[in-house]
Design brief:
Helix content: 10-25%
Strand order of the largest sheet: 10-9-8-7-11-12-15
Number of strands: 15
Structural class: mainly beta
Shape: globular
Largest sheet: 7 strands, mixed
Bound molecules: FE2/S2 (inorganic) cluster
Oligomer: single chain
Radius of gyration: 17 Å
Order of helices and strands: EEEEEHEEHEEEEHEEEE
Strand content: 35-45%
Length: 240
């Protein structure tokens, strides 16, 4: 697997905090998979960034990213038809083989992005989405029905944490992505109630291909590389 040059289809400021970047990609991409992205002209001078897939439809990959440093600031300046280098689609992605089940998606922060695509794949189930924010609510319109919102500030929905309003016993499967403290709580609740869960981990990644070991995490089965063995892990193998 190697980096390929692709032309940007669109790159724009979608919300106060997030940009949406899209490019053409013919091979199927699973929810939970990600791409390593690098701008062509900066070559090795710029670190490559892992960005998860927020939507894939009609041969177009869409990603959401937050401008947090020099690298993502450079991405935000890219225009339609500029070339970037991408490596992917990487990682295992979510297991979505749960037809007709009661399913909850629990997410927060930038972890909301991959769950938008996951929610589309799971739309034929009885699906409930729990989204936690600090204050400002963003992209709730990307989810269809049954959305439950919590904000720490109380600006919208339940005042507090999203885990306050989650009863995992109502569900057969729970998927989570977002701040680690939130995912740990969700997984613990699921493990205690013997509910199947999946968590998508976020780690700093240098290579994205399993070679550098910068993304290692501890699991019940020993150390695993988040980029290659994950980023999605079964909840009962984590934080135990
Ligand atoms: Fe290099 Fe995972 S990022 S091994």
């Amino acid at each position: 697997m190697k980096y390929e040059k692709v032309a940007i289809v669109n790159n724009y400021k979608k919300t106060e905090e997030f940009y949406e970047l899209s490019f053409k990609w013919e091979e199927e991409v699973k929810p939970g998979q990600f791409f390593m992205i690098s701008k062509v002209n900066f070559g090795e001078l710029m670190l490559k960034r892992p960005i998860s897939v927020y939507n894939y439809k009609d041969g177009i990959v869409k990603m959401l990213y937050r401008v947090v440093g020099k690298g993502t600031k450079l991405f935000s300046c890219l225009k339609k038809d500029d070339e970037i280098c991408v490596l992917g689609a990487l990682g295992n992605g979510f297991n979505t083989d749960y037809k007709g089940k009661n399913i909850a998606i629990v997410c927060g922060g930038i972890g909301i992005a991959p769950m938008v695509y996951l929610s589309q794949k799971l739309c034929e189930n009885n699906l409930h989405i729990y989204v936690g924010y600090k204050d400002e609510v963003f992209i709730p319109e990307c989810f269809k029905d049954n959305i439950h919102i919590a904000t720490e500030s109380g600006k919208e929905g339940h005042k507090g944490f999203v885990t306050d309003i989650l009863d995992v016993k109502k569900y057969d499967v729970v998927y989570t992505c977002g701040p680690e403290i939130m995912m740990q709580k969700v997984v613990k609740m699921c493990n205690e109630n013997k509910v199947k869960s999946y968590a998508s981990l976020e780690k700093y990644m240098a290579c994205g291909m399993g070679a550098c070991l910068t993304c290692v995490c501890d699991t019940k089965h020993g150390k695993k590389r988040v980029c290659l063995d994950g980023p999605v892990f079964e909840g009962d193998t984590l934080w135990i």
